[in-house]
Amino acid sequence: MAAAANMTAIENDRPPTVISFDTISLSYGNRVIISDLSLDVGRGEIVCIIGPSGCGKTTALRMAGGLVRPSAGSVRLRGAPLTAPRQDVAIVFQDYGKALLPWRTASANVSLAMEAAGVPRDQRQARIPPLLAKVGLAGHGDKYPSEMSGGMQQRIQIARCLAQDPAVLLMDEPFGALDAMTRQGLQDEMLSLVAETGTTVFFVTHDLEEAVYLGDRVVGLLPNPGRVGIDLKVSLPRPRNQLESREMPEFLRLRRELFDFIEKAER
Amino acid sequence: MNSDWWKGLVVPAVLLGLAELAMRFHGSVSMSLAAPTDIVIAFGRVLLNGSLLAATGGTLVSAGAGLIFGGFIGLLLGILFGLLAIVDRVMEVTIEAIRPIPSVAVLPIAMLIFGFGYRMEIAIVAFSCLWPVMIMTRAAVGGIEPRLLEVSRALRLSAVDRVIKVVLPAALPRIMVAFRLAAGIALVVAVTVEIAVNPLGLGYGILVAQQALQPDVMLAYLVWIGVIGWGLNVLLSLAQNRLFGRAGQVEVVR
């Protein structure tokens, strides 16, 4: 069985599937949001989801997080149906200002994830500083979110997710509200964090260049109802570099292809 | 402090002075009014003979216990209704049928059940404090940033942890306002019950002074009740800032 699975993995040149959307549909009353969407995300893969607004990309992410259940079809994590939020699947929301507890310090916000997991207090205290250091917030643990910049607040949220020791990181336009320089910095930090831990990443964005820069694959969804329209492999070498990677012909070709896709999808 | 803080005191001081002069020059004995200085003297008298403190204790115990009981039940119900829309819908008619009953109207029933004394008064104060706390807590919980609740779901916080670590702190500023409001109501209701039927506390003190034709004592009690009400509000404001620190002050950014 394992050998067979291994064979297929080698044949397809694809890592074993971690998350799979199996012909899922979602409708509220008569409104069909997503229809027959199928998508597999392999272990350690960074899959970026793009698409015009209303294509259900955020909804798909929320399904992968167990926050929304499909009306038909199933979302599976390593083969097992995913019906509720899980310890090893962490979600980074776009609106960090709303997703953090304003009455808790950066440390205490990170601690919340471990409190939920039942980690004893002394272990929490020991684990928080390294987590904050990992996201570049060493020494800022005692600050409240309101005392920090947007980029730093989003780092707190990422640290809180890392505290879950996630196998899968679901990111919903996490850098969309940040300025260009901060965004690039966080993109690179995220890539090196993920490379270190081998975390699988499902990354929703509306920024085509960001999708190509970060992803191993870029999946474009079509709207009304949401479904997969395009699935591109990104063969840019890693580690990526903000200047060199973005100047490569492959980058420009993919960007062009996605741009055309979005333009057609919106028409 | 501002250097012109005394300006606000000018009007009351003048009014008190005029009242004093009017009472002195009018000369006759009043059954309903007394000169401010007589009130102060009467206040000193009831303070020294211990009757004022005993009455204050009686009223505060009743109002406080009623506030705690009623507020606690109101808080629990408010959180329940605020978090679970279904329960809110199911209970809506029932609640709206009971809530408008004036608390003083349940006096006869409370007297049948508890007789005179503390328990009856506490029950009525609790009944009247329950509703404002419940309704404001429900609104506060219903108004919590949905993303925060989603985060607590995504992190898989237990139901109890969700309430204690996310819902309560997020709703705390508005819950504290509800309790301050309810504290005022508790005092009003307690004194009302004492004047109407219950032979204890400040309300009963006022009543006795009135029936003994001692307007100075009566008005001394009245002023004292005002001071108590003001003090209670200051105390709760302080508690909000000191006890709950940041959670008590920060409204969730929306």
Through-space gap between termini of chain B:
34 Å
Please tally the helical runs of chain B, counting DSSP H or I stretches of 4 or more residues: 10
Number of helices of chain A: 10
| Strand order in the sheet with the most strands of chain A | 6-7-8-3-9-10
Q: What class, by secondary structure content of chain B?
A: mainly alpha
In terms of DSSP E residues, the strand content of chain A is 15-25%
Mean pLDDT of chain B: 89
Structure description:
With 267 residues, chain A is an alpha/beta fold. Chain A folds into two domains: 16-88 and 166-267, P-loop containing nucleotide triphosphate hydrolases (Rossmann fold, 3-Layer(aba) Sandwich), CATH 3.40.50; 97-164, no CATH class. In chain A, 40% of the residues lie in helices and 24% in strands. Chain A has a six-stranded mixed β-sheet, with helices on both faces. In chain A, strands 2-1-4-5 form a four-stranded antiparallel β-sheet, covered by helices on one side. In chain A, strand 4 (72-77) and strand 5 form a beta hairpin. In chain A, helix 4 crosses helix 5 and helix 4 (106-116) packs parallel to helix 6 (150-162). The longest helix of chain A is centred in the last third of the chain and has 18 residues, at 180-197. Chain B is mostly helical. Chain B has a single domain, classed as MetI-like (MetI-like fold), CATH 1.10.3720. The two termini of chain B are 34 Å apart.
